[in-house]
Design brief:
Number of strands of chain B: 4
Low-confidence stretches of chain B: 1-11
Number of strands of chain A: 4
Shape of chain A: globular
Number of helices of chain B: 22
Distance between the termini of chain B: 16 Å
Largest sheet of chain A: 2 strands, antiparallel
Order of helices and strands of chain B: HHHHHHHHEEHHHHHHHEHHHHEHHH
Strand content of chain A: under 5%
Distance between the termini of chain A: 13 Å
Oligomer: heterodimer
Low-confidence stretches of chain A: 1-16
Helix content of chain B: over 70%
Mean pLDDT of chain A: 85
Largest sheet of chain B: 2 strands, antiparallel
Strand order of the largest sheet of chain A: 1-4
Helix content of chain A: 55-70%
Number of helices of chain A: 15
Shape of chain B: globular
Chain lengths: 353, 532
């Protein structure tokens, strides 16, 4: 028992080991890229889109790291963080803020909301140890459904977020209307040949990645990881496991909230109602593709995973449309790859005590 | 044993509280439905009962298919979605080859069985590799299988599997299966309502039969317990209550049948004639049937002055408009005319009913006996299989995999068998579901099945480790009652019926989340007590 724990703690510092799944997906991506080249699709555009979509989803994927490290498994309840972020964004628009200020205020506002929600969610997870993933999934689903009622009933009056007639908020809210779309994307963006580099987007993703990396190098970060690897051993060394798990899930929820704001500005729309329902699954798949397991993950896994997964989806769409004309194969392919990789990761989970 | 004693000590002093906590989901739902009845004045009893009855017969089979995996310790099998897809594949295949009727149904059941055994085997393998996480694995496996299903139905059909583009099942461009496929009515040799219309009886008759059968079962159980010397199992209070309920329902049904005006029977006879009318019908026989009906109506009209004008109008309609026009060329027009006349007579029957209850009960849609028999058969099968060697293996594996393994049970194999049974039953359940709807929504009919069935079972008082036929049937009734009531409740609570849809979704997800959460929480608490 102790030996096992010791080796696990030692492995804590080793870099993310690239697994076979990562290599397969990478090979697949390169194949589609070559396919794209031969079918006459602009590879530069594909690479630009890949970078844009990776930056867009990056922080949402990053939210998986604290949850996985703390031992609660991938954060299938990412919608909890997402609705916090969306709510903050809607509030900022309701206050008639525009442009960068709108995004900044919504990020600031989303943090306290997400901290409270994350705390409650962490408490819940501590009560249901052993079945965290299933419960988390249904927590995410329930919160999304609950927020559907909230979106219908909030007494916000700004015409940019409400329907022209009747009550309730719109399904999709144009951020262009408040000049908040693509602000981070376009910040210091430049072109190399035909490839557009969304500097601001990559910078903010990089910034949060470094933050998470630094956190997991700090004392409390290492304590969280240790608790995730072997809770009994960590408890014996005097760590407060329950507190650490709550802390990790607060962090994850906050990252989810900030992630959706960055995502929305890059997408150009804030999607309310049932849109967040399935958003956790692509994020989970991305981190797993990057080489993480359901119990170990690091920032490197996130970066590799998000670029590979989004790259594959971006490239596959036009290539698939070229081969199967008039169909949407990429959505089906996303379902198969995304859920296949999650299933694969689940089969690797060792049975908890 | 120790565990049980510990429990008693801890929970006894707050027995009621723990009972409430144990049944919180059920209690919430019962209160919800009662609340719905209280606030909604415009929801008519006949509409409610018709809907409930339809939904009960449509969904019970699927919910029942969840029981065996629960008993085998696999938790709630969200993977029944995979079985449902097998069922739909069978229906699509039958539709493609133009099969229908009894042979078509049999074909569907066999194909669905074969596919589901294969898929169930792989699902079972997966569950063995994801021990302790079966529920999330089942959920994700459902999503994954949905991707594969869409790949086959949208891209392989037409590209790899060659099909004629002109087939009504195939999209106009020749690739993929259409989003909604209307099944051919069973009269024309299709699958639509193939089981549903096999044999139908009025609702009150079904009510009477069910009440009487329940009564017989109650007495047999009582007698057997006594004979085996297990008389302590017979609780006089609950036995008396159950008998009283059965007698009440039976006598109500008898009263309705006796008090209901004969006109209801006339109207349903007319409906039956209209629905059986097709090109092969013997038109002379139909004419003489119609003449018999007119004389019946005239006899009733002579005794009731209030509705006599309506009835006389109906009689002249039949004599002057329907019978002369009963020729093969005008069949469609005549059929709809017969339906219209039947509904006129129905209205007259409501007017002449002695009270609201009678007319309400008489207006409930008829009950599909064949589906009902299948559901009862499955209930019996589920109860019986637990008494066999295999069933005991399920139970022991469900209680402790380790102890089962030590005592010589092949745990992996047992779990796979449980999954296969569940998947096969789900496939058949989906067949019943689709033929009852009459249309196949190729890409959406199966997606919600897992969630709704699991929620229904949980509402019935089941948990991840305990489920029974009673839970399934009661849960299906209660869950669907909520579904029918929720627009009304949404309207009166939030002032908008549009909210009902979201509210319903919240209830489904919330039920599953709360029930699973409470179960794990209680199990963890129990463990802690034992450890301490």
């Amino acid at each position: 028992m102790t030996d096992q724990a010791n080796t696990s703690v030692l492995r804590l510092k080793s870099p993310g080991n690239i697994g076979i799944a990562t290599l397969i997906i990478a090979a697949f991506w390169f194949t589609t890229l070559i396919g794209a080249y031969f079918t006459g699709i602009s590879v530069q555009t594909l690479l630009s889109d890949t970078m844009k979509r990776a930056g867009m989803n990056g922080i949402l994927v990053l939210a998986m790291v604290p949850a996985i490290q703390s031992g609660t498994g991938p954060n299938f309840a990412l919608p909890v963080g997402i609705v916090c972020g969306l709510f903050a964004l809607i509030c900022a628009i309701e206050f008639n803020l525009t442009g960068a200020l709108c995004l900044f205020v919504s990020i600031i506002l989303s943090i306290p909301i997400a901290v409270i929600a994350g705390y409650a969610y962490g408490k819940l997870l501590n009560a249901v140890k052993g079945s965290e993933m299933t419960i988390a999934t249904y927590t995410g689903f329930s919160i999304t459904a609950l927020m559907c009622l909230v979106w219908m009933m909030v007494p916000f009056t700004n015409e940019k977020i409400g329907w022209f007639l009747g009550e309730g908020l719109r399904e999709t809210i144009q951020l262009g209307a408040v000049d908040a779309a693509f602000i981070i994307n376009n910040f210091m963006a430049f072109k190399i040949g035909e490839i557009i580099i969304p500097t601001g987007l990559l910078l903010i993703f990089g910034f949060f990645s470094v933050l998470v990396w630094l956190f997991f190098d700090s004392k409390s970060g290492i304590a969280i990881s240790a608790g995730g690897i072997n809770p009994k051993f960590a408890q014996a060394t005097g760590l407060n496991i329950d507190r650490n798990r709550i802390l990790a899930n607060i962090l994850s929820t906050v990252l989810g909230a900030i992630g959706i704001i960055v995502y929305s500005q890059s997408f150009g729309y804030a999607q309310l109602y049932t849109a967040p329902l399935m958003m956790a699954f692509p994020a989970v798949a991305a981190v797993l593709i990057g080489g993480a397991t359901a119990s170990r993950a690091n920032v490197l896994n996130v970066i590799i995973g998000v670029f590979l997964f989004q790259g594959l989806l971006t490239t596959a769409l036009p290539v698939a449309n070229e081969i199967f004309k008039g169909t949407d194969l990429s959505e089906v392919m996303r379902m198969i790859i995304q859920n296949g990789i999650i299933l694969y990761a689940l089969t690797q989970v060792k049975r908890g005590g | 044993m120790l565990l049980g004693e510990e429990n008693k000590v801890v929970f006894n002093y707050k027995g009621i509280l723990s009972w409430v906590l144990d049944n919180i989901v059920t209690i919430i739902f019962v209160l919800f439905v009662l609340f719905g009845f209280m606030i909604s004045k415009d929801i008519r009893m006949n509409y409610f009962l018709s809907e409930l009855c339809d939904r009960l017969f449509r969904n019970s089979f699927l919910v029942l298919s969840l029981i065996i995996p629960v008993l085998a310790g696999l938790g709630l099998n969200f993977g029944i979605v995979i079985g449902a897809m097998c069922g739909q594949a069978a229906i699509a295949l039958a539709r493609y080859h133009g099969l229908g009727g009894m042979s078509g149904l049999l074909f569907c059941f066999v194909i669905s069985f074969l596919l589901a055994v294969l898929c169930g085997y792989f699902t079972g393998k997966l569950y063995n590799k994801t021990r302790g996480q079966e529920m999330i694995a089942g959920l994700i496996a459902g999503f994954f299988a949905n991707g594969v299903y869409q790949f086959i139905f949208l891209f392989m059909v037409g590209v790899i599997i060659k099909v004629p583009a002109t087939h009504p099942l195939i999209m106009p461009n020749g690739i993929g299966v259409r989003m909604t496929v209307d099944l051919v009515p069973v009269e024309n040799g299709g699958l639509k309502f193939a089981l549903e219309n096999m044999y139908k009886i009025p609702f009150v008759h079904a009510l009477l039969v069910v009440a009487l059968v329940a009564l017989v079962i109650l007495f047999i159980g009582y007698y057997l317990n006594k004979k085996r010397g297990e008389g302590y199992k017979n609780r006089p209070v609950s036995f008396g209550f159950n008998v009283l309920m059965c007698l009440l329902i039976a006598s109500m049904a008898v009263y309705v049948m006796a008090a209901a005006p004969k006109l209801f029977g006339v109207s349903s006879n007319l409906n039956a004639i209209a629905s059986n009318l097709n090109k092969e019908s013997d038109l002379e026989a139909v004419k003489s049937e119609l003449r018999a009906i007119t004389s019946e109506i005239s006899a009733i009209a002579a005794n009731d002055d209030v509705i006599a004008p309506r009835l006389n109008a109906a009689v002249s309609d039949i004599n002057d408009m329907i019978i002369p026009n009963l020729t093969p060329a005008k069949l469609n027009a005549v059929t709809s005319f017969i339906y219209a006349t039947a509904s006129d007579i129905n209205t007259a029957a409501i007017v002449s009913s002695p009270n609201v209850m009678v007319s309400n009960f008489m207006q409930v849609r008829t009950v599909p006996v064949a589906v009902g028999l299948l559901i009862i058969g499955l209930c019996i099968f589920t109860s019986l299989i637990m008494r066999t060697k295999l069933g005991q293996d399920f139970r022991s594996v469900g209680q402790s995999q380790h102890i089962a393994e030590v005592s010589g049970i092949n745990v992996d194999r047992t779990r796979i068998i449980a999954t296969i049974i569940s998947t096969v039953l789900a496939g058949w359940g989906q067949l019943i579901f689709i033929q009852s709807l009459g249309t196949l929504s190729t890409y959406s009919a199966h997606t919600q099945i897992g969630m709704f069935s699991v929620a229904a079972l949980l509402v019935g008082g089941a948990s991840t480790s305990r489920a029974s036929v009673k839970n399934a049937i009661f849960g299906t009734i209660l869950f669907n009652a909520m579904f029918i009531m929720s627009p009304t409740i949404g309207e009166s609570l939030f002032g908008a019926a549009g909210l009902a849809e979201y509210f319903r979704t919240l209830m489904v997800y919330g039920v599953i989340g709360v029930a699973l959460g409470l179960h794990v929480w209680k199990a963890n608490k129990k463990n802690r007590i034992v450890v301490e």
